[in-house]
């Protein structure tokens, strides 16, 4: 199985963080100059970025759980191949 480094997710989240900082600064500037703020646009941008960040976290947690389970299965099969299945027999009784 290939190991995925997660570099794409880190780059995406870093770019999103920088974008949100710049977007907030631009909104503050527009609000200062015009006296009003684009409420709908602000809500939509932060909702999208929040959903993207939440989905990225969910994907990462799911991958880590899957890797942990696969690692446990590999260790268990390795122990069984070596003949050290006494721990398994004790848990099934």
Task: Describe the overall structure.
- The chain has one domain (about 5-90).
- About 85% of the residues lie in helices and about 0% in strands.
- It has helices at about 5-35, 40-80, 85-90.
- The longest helix is centred in the middle third of the chain and has 43 residues, at about 40-80.
Radius of gyration, CA atoms, in whole angstroms: 24 Å
Biggest beta sheet summary: none
Q: Show unreliable segments.
A: none
The number of helical segments is: 3
Protein name: Lipoprotein
Keywords: Membrane, Transmembrane, Transmembrane helix
List keywords for this structure.
3 helices, transmembrane helix, transmembrane, mainly alpha, rod-shaped
Question: How are the secondary structure elements laid out?
Answer:
Elements: H1 7-34, H2 39-81, H3 86-92
Helix pairs in contact: 1-2
Short description:
The protein has 93 residues and is mainly alpha-helical.
């Amino acid at each position: 199985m290939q190991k995925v480094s997660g570099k794409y997710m880190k780059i995406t989240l870093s770019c999103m963080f920088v974008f949100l900082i710049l977007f907030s600064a631009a909104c503050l500037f527009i609000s200062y100059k015009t006296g009003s703020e684009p409420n709908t646009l602000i809500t939509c941008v932060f909702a999208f970025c929040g959903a993207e960040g939440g989905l990225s976290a969910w994907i990462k947690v799911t991958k880590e759980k899957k890797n942990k389970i696969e690692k446990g299965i590999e260790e268990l099969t390795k122990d069984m191949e070596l003949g050290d299945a006494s721990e398994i027999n004790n848990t099934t009784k």
